Amino acid sequence: MLEELALERLEPVPQPRHMSVDEVAWQKWHHYVTNVVDIEKHKVIWNHDGRGKEVLDGFYKAPGEEGCKKIEAVASDGARGYLSSTQENARQALIVLDHSHIKKYLNDAVDTVRKQELQKAREQNDKELSGMLHCNKRFILMQNKVTNKKRDLLERLSQLNQEVYQAMLLKEQFLCIYSTGDRKTAWANLKTWIIAALQSKSPAFVELGKKFFRKRHYILNYFICKITTAISEGINNKIKRLKRMAYGYRDVKCFLLKIHQHCGLLSPRLST
User: Fold this and answer.
1) Does one domain contain both 116 and 170?
2) What was the pLDDT predicted at 125?
3) 70 with 54: CB under 8 angstroms?
4) Are residues 64 and 161 in the same domain?
5) Into how many domains does the chain fold?
6) What is the pLDDT of residues 190-199, one digit of tens each?
7) In the chain, what are the helix, strand and coil shares in percent, each to the nearest 5?
8) What is the largest CA-CA distance in the chain?
9) Which helix (H) or strand (E) holds 190?
10) Per-residue pLDDT band at 272 (split at 50, 70, 90)
């Protein structure tokens, strides 16, 4: 029944105007499926076993060159395979590096600095600093919003440890870029941030500054077309719940069809 409906609704592959692409694990040991989501419809329109360039090439090649011309923007997490596939097959589309993944990069860099300084504090038997950098305070440091607890922690860190304090400031300064209204101002702010990151002497942020410079066009495209992979992330949560309810799937084809049934165009709620 689902296979017949899939032939009716999913072939030819619906062509989105704005889309996002992401992967989700369907089994242990790095077994993934790739999902393409129509951002305007909030639906999965295509999926396939595996991940990477060759898999996404399959989506772009289905409608051909003319169909790909209808795609205006693609939101991605910055994976090389997805970027290169989109650049090759949908040349006119804007590639937008999702800012939630950028925040993850920033948090990972801050956490790297935190762990390094925590180890030094323990070696020096600095109990106050060790307590502030302990993993039970990590969630305060990772918060994107400035709360009273976070403000107090930052004020004390500015006195006790400049490395973590500097890392936190770099994170907060980058997030301020997204309050910018236009691409030109955002680029000026991003350029200033990259220079500060490279001059910070923190290996984690020096590496991140280089990464953001390489991907600066994808970051700045957000200010032209403000799309994200938020829809894909939400759908991924539904897919994980679907997998838990079924206690896992052995047949990936069945799993792909179930994703379309619960998160895509095969939903029984949609009119035939």
Assistant:
1) yes
2) 92
3) no
4) no
5) 2
6) 999 999 999 9
7) 60, 10, 25
8) 69
9) helix 183-199
10) very low
